[in-house]
Design goal:
heterodimer, A: 345 residues, mainly alpha, 3-stranded antiparallel sheet, B: alpha/beta, 6-stranded mixed sheet, 23 strands
Chain lengths: 345, 543
């Protein structure tokens, strides 16, 4: 994180000094990395199988049941007591801590779904008999990944548009501003609802639709920074040296405009996650069956007699968003020049 | 008994053991002016602000006594001390544009202090405001009261500030660099106004300044500050004529002097500009209309020979900097510009790029002219990356290091970042950045204006040396006539985008042909220049 530039070093130190923000970011990163390996944490397949002296990795590849001496050509169902018995006779299986994937239905429930928390399903099951904890883990990963991709892509577009507007100014800037104003006044939620009514949106189509309407967040900010920077003397000096425009934009102006931008990123990420969750909640988001926090919240609302549904989705969302807000606040304070001047005095 | 007396005042930021104002004692008498003189960072302003309880956050203060009319205000409550500000003590700050609230009209700017301290009604406040406007020699009209700061000129803003400071009939006026941001001819009138008000009201003035010429003319007493200590105090005339302390002598010696090396007659022409004009769009009128375009540079011609320095002087708004940008082809301009007999005005984009190497620029602001996120080495070798693509990193580093040494910077500068350098050093870096491509012409836009006098002298010496060694031509833009005289062979006086006068430097200084030039010179040297005749050569400092 040092990178040699003393300004970044100073900001990194200022960020570290905010203990709440620092630990929030650390905890969030731990949770995120864990959820990236969700297949190893919650899965209906064992991580590793040893059968007749050979090693199999069902997480990575599919083996037909016949591999383990079964009857069918289809993929082995390791939760099937018959298959488990076959394997355990001449080997062993290494299971993840949670033996359910997000779409594994527990057919052995002794009570009608949604089932309350038990030793088998730690947070209970949803109304289709799927393990809530497994769905939370996969849902967390999906939400954060979706939010990250949306944040990064919309920031890149927004920064480029804002940079060009601010650098060139004049008519280009003026027409760009008017377009952004018109475009951003479209009601995005309703548009997505309308679009979802004739196409069933998948992960990428949903991302694209949201991207169409969320790239404007940073435009104004970056534009203002570039408008300010373009008349600074070091930019003039670079122009006088004959430095090419893209180099001026990206080497001289962008790093100085990025301060304001980076400050916003955690909050943009939060907004993206919330948008996806709310779409899922009302049923216009990711395709049915996807592990999504919004869908779980929706189930909680539909099954008020099963409070574990709503509660676990709520706690997960609240923790995730709070961690991001705390980290975002720390980033903002670290980049605030008045703050680190105070600490230097 | 003195009006204001400070005894053993210390101010510190980190630790009391490292004070930035160190046991300062001084006193200001009623009806007299004490000038606090020193370079930036010497603690002048902090000394004044600690009288007003206006120290920045995190600063600590200690004093044996801060006495006003014999009463020690340190024993007063914070509330009672606050009533001093704008009451018994008026303050004038350096930059009138930022010291005035841009959203308040003149009436409110002045009236606010009256309302707070005297609690008068609306009509009484208005009457008082009009009287004050009259006293500061502004038109005492309703129209004036209704104006916003941006509708006033720099001198008018400073007059409004003085009116604000005088609103509650203070006994003491603290003037913190009151004329530094103003043009020379306006400086003069503002200081004369202050002197008149002082006589009428028996004001004590604490004048903070770095300008010894100005201090010599307007102060009765001088206290010289250096690194937080007062090194010398005394009556103005005696102190300036017979300085006892080395530092005072050093300050006095730093007044720019000397002349440029004479030029050989057969030096070839380097730059030739003919009928150069730059105009900006006029102000908006209604929805689609526009007012007449404003001519920032108007039909201007100049030539510059190899090894020559052409000084361009003029007050702010005269189009000096616009001229620089137009010559550099950084803004669109009409007219002909030829460098080394190559017409540049028809070239643009890629065709212009190779020619940029011959013409470089150094700007005024030592803080804005370097990118804070690039190391010094990276900033300086940028020109090599553009114009000498054949060099590898090691060769670039070698050239950068050699040049940084030539401009007088420490050997390890290349790896460091701009914030680690002082203003003068930053200006050296900016000069190195321009010189790395070995230009023939260097355009210097107020290169020393933001620097202290002694640093100015060093930078001027550096520029003269570089000119000698490299045969550089300079276009030296400045509002400071003393500096221009020290370096320029020829002089070009600009006003409203036009050339007022043009000729050899000494000829212009000794026998100005135009009334405007004469006024500029008189304001800079505080002496009368007879028309076309030799001026009184006595330096202002010696008065």
């Amino acid at each position: 994180m040092s990178g040699g530039n003393p300004i970044w070093q100073r900001q990194w130190r200022a960020f570290r000094r905010n203990r709440r923000g620092f630990w929030s970011l650390a905890l969030f990163l731990v949770l995120f990395v864990l959820s990236l390996g969700a297949e190893f944490v919650a899965n209906d397949k064992p991580v590793m199988v040893r059968y007749q002296g050979e090693l199999y990795f069902p997480v990575f590849s599919t083996y037909p049941e016949t591999t383990f001496g079964g009857l069918f050509e289809t993929e082995a169902n390791y939760r099937d007591p018959f298959v488990a018995e076959l394997i355990n006779e001449d080997g062993w299986m290494l299971w993840p801590p949670i033996r359910y994937s997000h779409d594994t239905i527990n057919y052995e429930l002794s009570v009608p779904a949604p089932a309350p928390p038990s030793a088998e399903n730690w947070l209970g099951t949803d109304d289709q008999g799927r393990d809530v904890l497994a769905r939370l883990i996969y849902g967390f990963r999906l939400s954060v990944l979706f939010g990250l991709i949306l944040t990064i892509t919309s920031s890149v577009i927004g920064i480029v548009v804002g940079a060009l507007q601010g650098y060139y100014g004049g008519w280009f800037d003026l027409s760009g501003q008017r377009f952004v104003e018109v475009w951003s006044s479209m009601p995005i939620l309703y548009l997505i609802i309308v679009i979802s009514s004739f196409v069933v949106p998948g992960f990428w189509t949903l991302l694209l639709i949201m991207l169409l309407f969320s790239w404007m967040t940073l435009v104004d900010l970056v534009r203002a920074e570039f408008l300010r920077c373009r008349n600074l003397e070091y930019v003039r000096a670079a122009q006088a040296l004959g430095v090419r425009t893209p180099v001026i934009l990206f080497r001289h102006m962008l790093p100085n405009a990025m301060v304001a931008t980076l400050t916003y990123l955690p909050f943009v990420l939060n907004a993206s996650v919330i948008l996806l969750t709310s779409l899922d909640f009302i049923g216009f988001g990711l395709p049915p069956g996807s592990p999504s926090l919004g869908e779980l919240l929706g189930q909680g609302k539909a099954n008020l007699h099963a409070p574990w549904l709503g509660l676990s989705a709520f706690v997960t969302l609240a923790v995730m968003l709070s961690l991001l807000v705390f980290a975002g606040e720390a980033v903002r304070d670290a980049f605030d020049p008045r703050k680190y001047n105070d600490s230097a005095a | 008994m003195s009006l204001l007396r400070l005894e053993d005042l210390s101010v510190w930021f980190n630790h009391p053991a490292r004070p930035v104002v160190d046991r300062v004692s001084l006193s200001v008498d009623a009806g007299r002016t004490l000038a606090l003189v020193g370079e930036s960072g010497s603690g002048k302003s902090l000394t004044a602000m600690s009288v007003l309880d206006l120290l920045p956050d995190g600063a600590g203060r200690q004093a044996t006594a801060i006495e006003l009319d014999g009463e020690n205000v340190l024993n007063w409550s914070a509330k009672r001390r606050r009533a001093l500000r704008g009451g018994r003590i008026g303050t004038i700050f350096q930059e009138p544009l930022t010291a005035l609230n841009p959203l308040h009209r003149v009436e409110r700017q002045i009236g606010e202090a009256i309302r707070i301290h005297q609690g008068l009604g609306r009509t009484a406040i208005r009457r008082r405001c009009l009287t004050l406007l009259e006293q500061v020699e502004l038109p005492a009209t309703e129209d004036m009261l209704k104006r916003y700061p941006h509708q006033l000129s720099g001198g008018q803003r400073q007059r409004v500030m003085i009116a604000m400071a005088l609103a509650n009939d203070p006994a003491l006026l603290i003037a913190d660099e009151p004329t530094t941001a103003l043009d020379v001819t306006i400086q003069e009138t503002i200081l004369n106004l202050l002197r008149r008000l002082q006589r009428e009201r028996n004001l004590g003035i604490l004048l903070i300044s770095h300008d010894l010429g100005l201090v010599g003319r307007y102060a009765d007493q001088v206290a010289v500050m250096h690194q937080g200590r007062i090194v010398e105090t005394g009556a103005t005339r005696g102190l300036l004529e017979n300085p006892a302390h080395d530092y005072t002598r050093h300050l006095l010696a730093a007044e720019p002097g000397g002349h440029p090396e004479p030029l050989t007659d057969q030096a070839p022409t380097l730059l030739n500009a003919e009928a150069l004009s730059v105009s900006f769009k006029g102000p908006r009128r209604g929805w689609f209309g526009r007012g007449a375009p404003l001519a920032a540079v108007d039909d201007l011609s100049l030539t510059l020979r190899r090894g020559e320095t052409l000084g361009v002087v003029g007050e702010s708004g005269s189009g000096k900097s616009t001229l620089a940008l137009a010559l550099l082809r950084l803004i669109p301009a009409n007219g002909k510009v030829a460098l080394l007999d190559q017409p540049l005005d028809r070239l643009s984009g890629a065709a212009l790029r190779p020619w940029r190497r011959h013409m470089q620029v150094v700007f005024q602001d030592p803080f804005g002219s370097l990118n804070p996120r690039l190391s010094v080495g990276r900033a300086v070798d940028e020109g090599l990356r553009v114009h000498h693509k054949e060099l590898d990193a090691a060769q670039r580093a070698e050239r950068t290091r050699a040049l940084l040494q030539e401009v007088g910077l420490p050997a390890d500068s290349a790896e460091r970042y701009p914030h680690e350098f002082s203003g003068g050093q930053r200006q050296r870096i900016a000069i190195a950045r321009a010189l790395i491509v070995e230009p023939d012409l260097l355009i210097l836009d107020e290169p020393t204006s933001a620097l202290d006098r002694s640093v100015q002298a060093q930078v001027l010496e550096l520029l003269k040396g570089l000119q000698q060694r490299r045969g550089l031509s300079y276009l030296f833009i400045s509002h400071d006539l003393k500096v221009v005289r020290a370096i320029s062979h020829r002089l070009l006086v600009m006003r409203h985008g036009r050339v007022v006068e043009h000729g050899d430097t000494e000829r212009v200084f000794n026998a100005p042909q135009q009334a405007y030039t004469r006024r500029l010179i008189e304001a800079a040297y505080n002496r009368t220049v007879s028309e076309g005749g030799a001026g009184d050569e006595k330096q202002a400092v010696a008065h």
